[in-house]
Amino acid sequence: MATTSRxxxxxxxxxxxxxxxxxxxxxxxxxxxxFADYQAASQTDPWTLVVRDAPAAGFDGRPxxxxxTAPDGLTGTLFRNGPGRFSRQDWRYRHWFxxxxxxxxxxxxxxxLRHQGRFIQTDKWQAExxxxxxxxxxxxxxxxxxxxxxxxxxxxxANTSVLLLGDELLALWEGGSAWSINPxxxxxxxxxxxxxxxxxxxxxxxxxxxxxSGIVWxxxxxxxxxxMIIWKIGADGALLDAGLVDxxxxxxxxxxVITEHSxxxxxxxxxxxxxxxPFLDSFAFDPAAPMMAIAIDKNDWSxxxxxxxxxxxxxxxxxxxxxxxxxxRLDAAxxxxxxxxxxxxYDIMRGQAETQTDSQARHRQVTLAAGGRSRIESLxxxxxxxxxxxxxxxxxxxxxxxHIAWDADQPRGATxxxxxxxxSGEHDRFDHGEGVYVEEPLFVPASPAAPxxxxxxxxTALNTRMQQTELxxxxxxxxxxxxxxxxxxPYACPFGFHGCWRPG
Length: 504
Ligand SMILES: [Fe+2]
Fold this sequence. Notes:
By secondary structure, the protein is mainly β. It has helices at about 5-15, 35-45, 125-130, 340-345; strands spanning about 60, 65-70, 75-85, 85-90, 90, 100-110, 110-120, 160-165, 170, 180, 190, 210, 215-220, 225-235, 240-245, 255-260, 260-265, 270, 285, 290-295, 300-310, 315-320, 330-335, 360-370, 375-390, 400-405, 415-420, 425-430, 435-440, 440-445, 455-465, 470-475, 485-490, 500-504.
C-alpha cells in the first residue's frame, strides 16, 4: 500500500488551508445587507425557499400522493444532501455552497412514503449550533468575529453529496473528510477515519463505483500545491490504496469520470491564483488557460496521458468509456467560464435569480484520442446541469444521459428533465412549467438485470405555487408522458445538490 510511505505528505495535504485566527471585522455589529436583501425577497417571492434555512430539528413528514400510482417494485430510499443553514444572528452566508449539510431521506415502501431531514452533525455544526452564531470561515464567506482554523475539517459542512459504502452512508464535501451517517436513523457518526495518516485528507463529492467489482474510486484535491490524492476503496468500505499524484494544475476540480482503464480529470480554466480568505477568492477564471484533460492509469498512477482543450469550466460529467484503441469518450455539462460559481451562487443568497449569460452549461461530448488529439461536440444547445447515467454502466460504453434543462428566459432555473441518446441523438423531455423548479434526476434500475436505461427517474422539485416540495417518479424511457407518480410534502425544503438510491 502506498499510504504508509506517504504519510507525512498526506498530513500536509490535510493541513492545507489552515490559517491563524482572523481579526474582528469592523462591520461585525452592522446590519448585514445580504441578510436584509434575502429577508425582503422572501416576503414576496416563494422561489427564495430554495435557499431557506431548514429548522434545526429537521423535518419529519408523510408525502401525500397527489397524482398517478406508485410504481410496483419501486421500494427503497432516496437520500439527498445539500446546504440547509445559511444564516445565524441576522447574518447570512454570501455563497450557496457555504451552507451546512442537510440530509434528506425519502423512504418509499408499500405502506406509503416517509420523509426525514436532518442536519449533519459536523464538528462545525455542533460548535456553531451551541454558540448560536457562525464561528469559522466558510468556503466563500467570512462571518463576523471569525475564529481560526486548524485544518479543513474545522470548516467541513458535508453538504454536497452522499455515498453508500458498506453499511454506512457518507455525507460528502470536497475539502475534507467524508462524514459517516447511519442510513437507517440518519444519525451522524463523526468524520470517516481511514487511518494510515489519511484522516482529514480531502475526499471529493463525486466518487465513482465500478459496476462489476464494486470498487469505489475517488480523489481529493490540493489545488494550492498542484496535486491530488487518489482513493481506491473496496466494495466493503475497506481502503485498498491511496496516494498522491503530482503536477495536476490547481484548477477547481469538482467531479471526474472513470473508464475501464483510466481515471479522467478535466482541469478547467478556473484556477488557484494565491491563497486568500475566504478560500474561494483564491480562484479566478483565466480565459487564457486551456482546460487540461488528464487520464491516469488505474493500475499505475504514475502513468498518464494529457490533452489540451479550449478554455472553459465544468462542475459535472455524465459518464465515460474507453474504446479498444484507448480513445476516451465522455459527456459533461461544459460552460465557457465559471460565472455561476463566481456570481450566480452569490446572487441566490440575496434571493435574486442568477444573471443569465452565455456562461450556462451545455451538454457536450469530448473525445480524447491518441497523440493528444481531442474534439468537443455539441449534444444540444439548451442549458443543462446534473447529468446522470444508469449507474450499472459507470465507466462502460452506454447510450443515455438524463439531466435537468432550462432556457435563457428562465433565470430561476430548470423546470424540465430530459433524456438524450448519445449515439442517435434521440431525446425525450418533460416540462413541469414555471413554478416547479427541478433538482437532480436520479436513475433507479427496474431490477439488477434490466437492460440499460430500463427503470425510473426520481427527482425532487420546489412547487412555488404551493410552497411545498414534491417528489416525481417517471418511466426513464418515457419522460414526455409525465410522472407516473407525484407526491407532495406539507412543507418546503431547501434545494439539495446530489443524491443516491438504496433499494430495499
Ligand atoms: Fe456536484
